[in-house]
Give the backbone structure.
Amino acid sequence: MDGNGRWAKRRGLPRSAGHSAGARTFKTIARYANKIGIKYMTVYAFSTENWSRPKDEVNNILELFKQYLRDASNFKDENIKVKFIGDFNEPHLDDEILTLIADAEKNSENATGMHLNIALNYGGRQEITDAVKIVAEKVAKKEICANDITEEVIADNLYTSGQPYPDLIIRPSGEYRLSNFLIWQSAYAEFWFSDVLWPDFKPKHLDKAIEDYSMRNRRFGGI
Ligand code: IPE
Ligand code: MG
């Protein structure tokens, strides 16, 4: 979800206004995606690198998360199953947000609609590193042999364990990079780029991305 800052700047507004607008877009798109039958959606909300932003801006973004989580109707009434993915041993994440996250996951665990992953303090390399640590522990305890480490074993220890790999990755705001997002999972994903800044992203853009995706010919290395 990129381009909040530029959206605000173009309007002569503070960056925080861009983040608020981006949060509204996120709610709209999550509801819409669920409505049209998307089964899994992961949004990149805050990366492990985003802590380098000014403290005020970081606090502003974290406050928006809290607001979203406090309003359980955002996902509960929508029958959306929320899951947070990222490194939650981060000292910057206070108890309040960790409790809100745990409650949101618990309150929505029986939802049968879309699985919504919110990537918070997420980094793809960090995720793979964490998986390797878990697997290394298992090897050290002789629960598995090094030779038995397959791609599946790694995948089963990622934050997205048990979920399918993404079919489509959407990057708005005119950037053409992955920025450490789902780097393992996206090996064969289709990419869709758009100049639209995230706060301006509308359901029609998601429709267009899906329509374009449906025209792609996925060969997964075959012919
Ligand atoms: C994305 O918008 C929001 C987060 C990273 C939390 P940006 O804040 O990166 O917006 P730009 O890239 O400065 O326009
Ligand atoms: Mg950005």
About this structure: The chain has one domain: 4-214.
